[in-house]
What does this fold into?
Amino acid sequence: MVPATTSEELVEIARSLEARGAKGFLLSGGVDETGKVPIADFLPAISEIKDETDLKINAHIGLSPTAEIGELARAGIDAFSIDVYGSDATISDVLGLKARVGDYFRVLRDLKEQKAYTAPHICVGIHEGRIDGEISALEHLAELEPDALVLISLIPTKGTLYEKVEPPSREDVLTVVKAARRVLPRTRILLGCMRSKLSRAVEYDAVAVGVDGVVLPSSETVKRLKAEGFTIRERVECCAFP
It folds into this structure.
């Protein structure tokens, strides 16, 4: 990702992206000790970008407080990507935060009250590669009916504590997909880009049981979907956008 440490740098980066033909960008960053991404510090830049360019902005905001969420929504951000969890143990053991499950859904409720476009993310297998809270998170989401749901999965990454952990199995991913389709019948469900791609067969299977879109599908997946009569519509932008 391209770093922007000041509002001026962020505006310059956005103008450069638009000049190169970009349609939008992801605004993200690391969280502080409370779990918040300090995006509100860049509110003037966000407003300027939305006023002076045609770029869409998808933002990760973490556990931003209610007052900041109102300001961010009014600044014109097009989509909010919120990581949600169904296990307090996952938040503590994996993220190292003192937050609880309800804190993440509070953010989503605040955004819904602002009539913001929401695209919560659930990472399948985030807790040591196993299912632990994903189904519970989906049940919480059913009450809020987000605009989109992005399902991603653990990627064992070199240099991390989980580098030797097995990614979630095909069966585990499909279990979450099926549950998501059942409890969110009107929500657009997507396989996001940040997922293990060791087994591409799950892409077709996920569509077959309810996923509406796949980010960066393999050529074999596309070929098989066409052969089975699916109509493929290609989008060249972040899946979280409306």
Summary: The two ends are 22 Å apart (CA to CA).
